[in-house]
Amino acid sequence: MRVLILGAGGMIGLKLAHRLVAEGQLAGQTIEEMDLVDLVAPSAPSGEMRCHCHAVDITKDGAIDNLIAKRPNLIFHLAAMVSGAAEQDFDGGYRVNLDASRELFEVIRHAHELDGYTPRLVFASSLAVYGAPLPDPVPDDQLRAPQTSYGTQKAIVELLLDDYTRRGFLDGIGLRLPTIVIRPGGPNAAASGFFSGILREPLAGLPSRLPVSHSVKHWLASPRAAVGFLIHAAGLDKEAVGPRRTITMPGVATTVGGQIEALERVAGPEATALIEHVPDPSIAEIIDAWPRAFKAERAAALGFRAESSVDDLITVYLEEDAPGGVGL
Amino acid sequence: MRVLILGAGGMIGLKLAHRLVAEGQLAGQTIEEMDLVDLVAPSAPSGEMRCHCHAVDITKDGAIDNLIAKRPNLIFHLAAMVSGAAEQDFDGGYRVNLDASRELFEVIRHAHELDGYTPRLVFASSLAVYGAPLPDPVPDDQLRAPQTSYGTQKAIVELLLDDYTRRGFLDGIGLRLPTIVIRPGGPNAAASGFFSGILREPLAGLPSRLPVSHSVKHWLASPRAAVGFLIHAAGLDKEAVGPRRTITMPGVATTVGGQIEALERVAGPEATALIEHVPDPSIAEIIDAWPRAFKAERAAALGFRAESSVDDLITVYLEEDAPGGVGL
Q1: What's the structural domain count of chain B?
Q2: Is A299 domain-assigned?
Q3: Disruptive mutation site among B89, B159, B248 for chain A (greatest number of A CBs within 10 Å)
């Protein structure tokens, strides 16, 4: 089997590539070769597998043709301009998140019409397809009503994924990933950054700022779980998924207060004392429009599994990503 | 005010143009000029108003620029490749129903960035954005899960309409129109054709075939109501509509049996005797995936009004469209 990862230089893409190299197979099939693609060429994970690393701007003419010419059996499409950037750069967001995705589907369709090529395509969608007002928990058949250009672009690609799959041009599965906690690295400017920061920084003995109240509730999964979702999706039975090809992934529904209690259980009150509550109304307003929790019944029925507590999220981080952890 | 109607040669477009010419104003504003556009130039309604009729293929480069150069204050976007054709012609359906609509939005956006131009744009969407399984009645916040390429294209344009409106580039309102009954003219090949045919043909003393059972239920409105929806949408307060810009229009929820009973009340048993039940499983299967009825609460709150019975639908037809009626 040949695997293509678009967006392989991102945090999840890198972890996915490392895990596939380490395991050498997927859904019972040996992976012979892997193409890792991002704007900057990702570094190849060390291992037995032949990995080709490419610096490719997928919005450029012909870029996707070259990648699909190798007829990868399995494509992970994780490439995206992130939410804040797509809101700042209207043209850029549509070009990367909508047009490049549609071009990918079109190149696959033309290959399909040529020689019957029909790859499994796993697409990373987003909870940003949902917009307030939202029930808590959000059911699987909730209306997609995004309130950002990024969410609009992801919702459109979900619709295209359904239509191209229904037509038989490709075999698409979309995953709406929870907010990833604990992200490795340092503090960042994302509105969601504090969900990781209030755990990660105190675990390292560093101070962290909390911009919202303890009652704020959100839907979280670890980087390891996210990689597990992508791999599980790659091996799913096509018919079992049905016509609605994008599935909301399971997660841990927790309040910020629940996160802090878990931190105290793992690292004691000296850790939680490092969290300073500095209310930021602009961040509170953004987060307030986000979904709080999901009734992810389809994902459960299809065998997707996430962590069951914030304690687990912390454990995964300490094992895998914390300074001194085992690494990728 | 200057008005542009894209798709002005269709049944609803023609009726809309005639009514606007007859009334000479909309939402309290005088209409000075009107541009009527379709693949074949529509004929100008007779009246005082200056109407310019154009044969334009809106998928051609620059075609939309020319139309928007006149800065119409109000645009009715009714142009579309119909469902069956868009299913047959994948490229054509996406080109007309998605790409031309997006190009229209883009040309408006660039005009907006140039000189602040922000027209009201009324977009004709479709119940085809919904796909089985569906509750009965379908609520306003039902998931858009189309099962045709046409429905996919309409759902995508609904999403774009929300995003372009949220960004302030245009002031969009989308309407999901019910199935139009009684359509003037003769029998046609559309799967929905019989909803009109079983009333229209017997009213003219002609036989008609019914391909589905009496228990089949659907959502209907007259051509006159559809034109009324478009005109009402043109005058709606922007803020009252909120961020979800497309609204399911009110209609009459009726079974085929209910249609036949109404026909008997209006035209007697000699009319209903002209309906021959010739089951067609392929049509029954298509119709079975369609919505049966809607809880169109948003439309009601915004003042959209439809007929309240099949008897009314028949009355509208006899007044307006039946041979010997008053005409457009």
Answers
A1: 1
A2: no
A3: B159
Query: Under an 8 A CB cutoff, do B243 and A145 touch?
Result: yes
Distances, alpha carbon A111 to alpha carbons A72, A73, B95, B189, B210, in Å:
11, 12, 20, 33, 42
| B126 inside domain | yes
Interface ipTM > 0.90: yes
> Across the interface, do A163 and B146 touch by the CB < 8 Å criterion?
yes
Range of the domain at B35: 2-177+222-248
In-domain check, residue A183: no
Instruction: Nearest by CB to A145, from B146, B160, B244: name it.
Output: B244
| CATH number, domain containing residue A202 | 3.90.25.10
| Lateral strand order in the sheet of B33-38 | B50-55, B33-38, B2-6, B74-77, B120-126, B171-177, B246-248
Same domain for A129 and A202, yes or no, is: no
**Residue B152 sits at the chain A interface (C-beta within 8 Å):** yes
Would you mind telling me the total number of residues written for chain B in this entry?
Answer: 328
CB < 8 Å from A in window 84-103 of B: 90
Q: Do A89 and A236 fall into the same domain?
A: yes
Claim: this prediction has a pTM higher than 0.90: yes
Residue (of B280, B262, B281, B275) closest to B204 by Cα position: B275
Q: How far is A243 from chain B (nearest CA, A)?
A: 8
Block means of pLDDT (10 residues each) for chain B, 328 residues, are 97 97 95 97 92 97 97 98 93 98 98 98 97 94 95 98 98 97 87 95 96 96 98 97 97 98 97 97 90 97 97 97 70
Annotated active-site positions of B, please?
150
CA angle A301–A304–A305, rounded 5-degree value = 115
Shared-domain flag, residues A244 and A277: no
User: Are residues A57 and A200 located together in one domain of the fold?
Assistant: no
